[in-house]
Amino acid sequence: MSNFTEMDCYLFGQATHYDIYRKMGAHLTEQDGVKGVCFNVWAPAARNVYVFGDFNGWDEYGHPMRRVQPTEMGVYELFVPGVEKGCQYKFMIDSNGKKLYKSDPYAYHAELRPGTNSVVTDIDHFVWNDQEWMDNRAQMDEEQMYAQPMAIYEVHLGSWMRHPGRGDEGFYTYRELAKTLVDYVKDMGYTHIELMGISEYPFDGSWGYQVTGYYAPTSRYGEPEDFAYLVDQCHKNNIGVILDWVPAHFPRDAHGLAEFDGTCLYEYADTRKGEHPDWGTKIFDYAKNEVKNFLIGSALMWIENYHVDGLRVDAVASMLYQDYGKRDGQWVANKYGENENLEAIEFFKHINTVILGRNPGAMMIAEESTAWPMVTGKANENGLNFSYKWNMGWMHDFLDYMKLDPYFRKNNHNKMTFAMSYNESEKYILVLSHDEVVHLKCSMLNKMPGLEGDKFKNLMAGYAFMMGHSGKKLLFMGQDFAQAQEWSEERELDWYLLENPNHKKVHDWMKDLLHIYRKYPCMYELDTTWAGFEWINPDDCDRSIFSFFRKSSDGKNNLLFVINFTPMERSDYRVGVPKRKGYKLILSSEQAKFGGPIEELPKKAFMATKKNCDNRDYSFAYPLAPYEVAIFLF
To answer: Where among 90, 119, 148 does a domain terminate?
Structure first.
């Protein structure tokens, strides 16, 4: 009896076999009382397919697979008795006399690079302890999800921290990270971890963005059950988990998906559609239902089998535009003569609708760098149906402003205010990601102008502006203590910098900002509407001061931000406010713990008086120090 039935073939051919990963690949099973593994692979153009590995002494012809009905689907299957968990294997595909040695596209586990074998394992029997988290997630409707705090810590596990002197490169394992990383994230006050490079990949320098194993957690840090343990521990500590996921392209490695059965099976056959000239990678053929099903099944596996809370979809723009990164002659127009990839658009609507429909509370996040409309709009209204979009425009404007000498900031004031003019067009995440601290772009600290002391003050002011602005937040590891070097995947972060007072005060500052962010609902519950944000004075360009307040839905515990982006003291600074009441200073960058003169915050609130300022009837005075950030509760 075949494991892969006619109904499986039908659903696979319709791109609706949402549990395809439970049929394709290698599965420990029992047939007629005999234990072994059932292997399945899709290779329609193959003349013959063989599975070989530890179990047969790597005899590539020893175990020919049979083509299941209907044969035109091209699925091959074989049950091999006696194969056990941990066995390594590969497929040998006879493509008209040419032998191709391929890893299993649906493998749950892979040999540690530079090895390329697939590994038999079991992902169905991990004992989860996160039922409360999963129940709460499942009960959360869309409105409730958007009203939750989201401060994401983006992490590359292999370079976050390493064991000194260990021979295996010093990587922390998933289980070690379940203690050290989780403790750090919880203490700092982040709400989510976003993990780079979890799907298996061969080349460390790709950071996990050139994937060969879409169903396998990388073996660099342990086995699949170890990765599940990390997710479980995150959830037990009320930390969400987001994975980077890469459906845009895949590498040409001989053991991978490229020309899998001797033909362009997973990629477009026309090189104008099927290759990225700049990246040297292959582009998935989104017109093929089986390819779409492969990708949809991968996404569902991470969310449903590994309890991951969201996927950040990489390089969305490269999928939407046929001419992305290409010159004339290197791309082909769609049937309307335009540059949109209609098949990729349909794919996004399909996958996002399925994933969010089956998994309330889960998230699909687009890294989309253009002005493509309605990325987070509903599919039935011609949107792409993502949950969130990275706000790349805000990031570029913010960094352009922050790099400037303070003298020139007055002429670029609008770079900091512009994002609020389009804030309601999408559901945004403000990001300062890994991409901004590599490839000679400098660390966040060294983007800042001035001498050493001013660099740290500028950075603290910038982080406060980001945390106070509408939108969810993402910060790459190391930025929260002002990492001085650019990031490299080859070494751990410079944790020793925390012994330096300047770096320690940035770390403490970021921790306080994160805890304030989580404590006060005004900071996050109305992120997508002007109801949650109001400029006090968006036009104070001559002094380069920004003042605004964040508002809660019940009108209680609102916060007022005043941020000075120059080294000029404003001892007579007056800020307009909405009500005649007290405004209590709850955080200042001039506190002693951040290197300033304020030993203790005043117990008394600053009382507003009836004095017009900033086109408001009431105001109060506050002596604003150079580069000071002052946050008031009212």
So the answer is: 119
Judge whether 111 and 119 are in contact, CB under 8 Å: yes
* Prior bond of 70 cis (ω within 30°): yes
Q: Is the dihedral of CA 100, 106, 112, 117 positive or negative?
A: negative
Residue 76 lies inside a defined structural domain of this protein: yes
The Cα–Cα gap between 384 and 370 comes to 14
State the Cα–Cα distance between residues 146 and 387, nearest whole angstrom.
9
The pLDDT, as a whole number, for residue 96 is: 87
574 burial (CB, 10 Å; 0-12 / 13-18 / 19+) is: middle
**Total structural domains in the chain?**
2
Segments in the chain below pLDDT 50: none
Q: Is the peptide bond before 623 cis (omega within 30 degrees of 0)?
A: no
pLDDT in tens, 277-334: 999 999 999 999 999 999 999 999 999 999 999 999 999 999 999 999 999 999 999 9
Q: What pLDDT does residue 57 have?
A: 97
Dist. CA 552–CA 521, nearest whole Å:
6
Taking CA atoms, 36 is separated from 1, 5, 121, 241, 626, in Å, by: 15, 19, 12, 34, 71
Q: Read off the CATH number of the domain in which 613 is found.
A: 2.60.40.1180
Question: CA nearest 465: which of 513, 527, 522?
Answer: 513
Catalytic residues: 314, 367
Say what the pLDDT of residue 166 is: 67
Enter the tokens of residue 53: 């590995």
Domain extent, residue 11, equals: 6-119
